[in-house]
Amino acid sequence: MKVQRSTIFAVNAKSNLHHFHSSQAELESVSKLLDRKWGLQSPAAPIHQISVSSTQGIGKLSFLNNTRPRLGDEVSKKRSSFYILRDDLLHPLVNGNKARKLDALLPLLQDHKVTDLVTCGGCQSAHTAAVGKKNSFYVVTAVSCAERGVRSHLLLRGEQPEVLTGYNLVSTMYGNVEYVPRSKYANREEMLRTHADLVAGEDGSVLWVKDLEAMDGFSSSEAASSRKVLIVNEGAGDALALLGMFRLVKYLSEDHLLGKKSRVKFVVDAGTGTSAVGLGVAAMSLGLPWEINAVMLADTLQNYKRHEARLLEEFTRQFLPSIVCSSLDTIKWVERQRPRKFGKVLEGEVEMCRKIAQETGVLVDPMYTLAAWETATELVEDEESSIVVMLHTGGTLGMFGLAQRYKSFFTNSND
């Protein structure tokens, strides 16, 4: 497993360059940062413990799930087991890291009286390689907006599938879907802005998420009947999305859970990489001895680092202006066990997902969460001093699209 480690530096008020550390003032700044309304009623999610043992047959591993593990002072560091945070159980449809990304955003929709939200994503179809949780974000957005009386407008790359299933089916039930040619989708910013302007009409107004808090929202002088349209980047790749991860890390570091002193190796699959950056900057800001293992799935290391740098600059400027960050030393960008072109499922992976589900009751998908599971099992074989924790990022609706594309992997499943 190839590893790329990031570094971080900060400049204080006296402009002295030093490794980032969490002073009392900085911790108080984080506390104030988290003193806001949230979309999730609680940051909590079930934590299970997976024991790993050698066996014969598929994958040569066997798994056992302890749904009531010991935590706090009794948290286990024993080899061959890891903890899994079941964010896939947060909501029937609004779950995983997408729910965390929307945690700080959703209350702002109501506070600023947003009437419409425009976002985009890749189309799930039998002919589309990029199926997975990148697509599920627009579904989560559509459901969350509908529950709050906000109209969602979803621009999906590609052609409408012949049969609507999974993400596409749910998104058409909750939101307004438009399929966009790939040539037009290539310029996402222009595409989103043009569509938002059409939704807003002559009397409405348009705002990007990155400007929402800084600009005090929409003008109060606008007519009550005018549209107030908010644009959300693909996959919620905005600094505001990191706040939900801050809230999660703060919760997990409580003494009755993982604590503040335990060495933790966190594992998360990386689509856009936003969740990994959120976990990393939160752990660093809170002074936690955590390492974030981000399994690169959908992009190159160079592009993940570029996204990390942009998010850090945007986040610190918007929320922690006293700190100047270049990159994070809490994050390890790692390759998955079996690297491949994004969107490709390899022989035996669907069967491994089935084995995991049958033995533990945890459903992972071969595109994203299986990669995190495999990395977690690899880490526990080498670790004796650290706790290994996998974040289950959801995305199980993507199995429908995979079943369309890889029919042979899903037929005669009992043979």
Give me the strand/helix succession.
EEEHEEEHHEHEHEHHEEHEHEHEHHEHH
The residue-averaged pLDDT reads 84
The strand order across the widest sheet is 1-14-13-12-15-6-4-5
Number of beta strands: 15
Structural class: alpha/beta
Distance between the termini: 32 Å
Sheet of most strands: 8 strands, mixed
User: Poorly predicted ranges (pLDDT <50, ≥5 residues)?
Assistant: 6-20, 125-133
Q: Radius of gyration from the CA trace? A: 21 Å
Shape, please? globular
Q: Number of helical runs?
A: 14
- Measured by DSSP, the beta-strand proportion falls in 15-25%
Q: Explain this structure to me?
A:
This protein is an alpha/beta fold and 415 residues long. 35% of the residues lie in helices and 19% in strands. The protein has an eight-stranded mixed sheet with strand order 1-14-13-12-15-6-4-5, sandwiched between helices. It has a five-stranded parallel sheet with strand order 9-8-7-11-10, with helices on both faces. Strand 13, helix 10 and strand 14 form a beta-alpha-beta unit. Helix 4 runs parallel beside helix 5. The chain is globular, with a radius of gyration of 21 Å. About 6% of the residues have low confidence.
Outline of this structure?
This protein has 415 residues and is α/β, with parallel strands linked by helices. The chain is built from 14 helices and 15 strands. The chain has helices at 24-34, 96-102, 105-111, 133-147, 166-174, 182-185, 188-200, 242-252, 274-285, 301-319, 349-360, 369-382, 398-405, 407-410; strands spanning 3-5, 10-11, 17-18, 47-54, 61-66, 81-85, 116-122, 151-157, 176-180, 205-208, 228-231, 264-270, 290-296, 331-335, 387-391.
